[in-house]
Each structure stands twice: as C-alpha cells, then as structure tokens.
Amino acid sequence: QKQGFTLPNQGEYGMGLVFLPVEHTARLQAEGILERITREEGLEVLGWRDTPIDADAIGRVARASQPYIEQIFIRRSPGMTEDALERKLYVIRKRAEHEIAASEIRDKDFFYIPSLSCRTVVYKGLLLAPQMQKFYKDLSDTECKSSLAMVHQRFSTNTFPSWKLAHPFRFICHRPRRCGAMI
What we know:
Elements: E1 13-20, H1 24-40, E2 44-50, H2 60-64, E3 68-75, H3 82-101, E4 112-117, H4 129-135
Antiparallel strand pairs: 1-3, 1-4, 2-3
Helix pairs in contact: 1-3
C-alpha cells in the first residue's frame, strides 16, 4: 500500500527484482521497455518499488559497480492460471533482456532481471552470504515472511565478479558445476 498500489492475492501477480542503470534517463528508458513489453504480453504493471538496501553493508568494489535495484509488480490477466502467469513472466523477462541488449540505452549492461516470478523471489548481489540480510533490508523486516530461505555463495574462478554473474540461476537452487574434465 505504501507504494501507491495494493497487491492482489498471492498467485495473481508476479514480482521481479530488476537491476537497472544508475543514470536516471537510462533507467527510465529501460523501465519503459519492460513496461511496454509487459502490456504487449497482456499483463498489467501495478507499479515499481525501490528495493530498500544498505550500501554500507557491502565492499568498495561491489558498491562501485552496483546497479540501481528496483522491484516490479505485475498483475496477471483475468482467468489466467498461476502456471500460465509464470510462463508469461519468463517470456517478458527474455524479451526485455534481448530488446534492451540491442538498444542504444546508456549503461544497458547494468540491466538484468535476477528474478521475475509469481512463486519465488531471488535476491542477488555481489556480496558474501553474511552481507545479504544487511544489504537487502527486506530480509530483516519483520513483515517479510517466507517458508524457506537459502543463501548460495560462490567465488568466480574464471571470470571477473559482477552483479549479473553473482549467481547463475533465477531459482532457489542449482546443480553444482564441475571445473575441468568430466570423468
């Protein structure tokens, strides 16, 4: 309610964690593309929310490369099932990623959607496991309820760390990767 919109019942909307360019004009352009694609796919953008963070909770390198982090809330179409909504949110994410990557938006490399789902929320960042709850203030909020919380931490061995690459998947778990030859 604080954001100027009321959320429908669980399963009737999706929420996305969205990394955006820091520069205001570029951020608005990226948001506009995501909103347009959402409408084209027959869904309604309820609104955006600045994700509450504490930038002092992370290191200097992470802070210097940090994207602007927002949450988008998207309502399903009337009569749409939860499974259909989940599939549609996937299509929206993929279309937005491709269109913004092909655009002329300044700092478009900041754009990334770690999570867009009606079932799960993935908080992602260039940070260590103990920093997660301090950085993402929602995770310390007593109003934030979850049936399950998992933290996955990994260190990149063959690429320079970045916010996009902090965790390779958008769901709560993944299979481990083997480096080297398969036996």
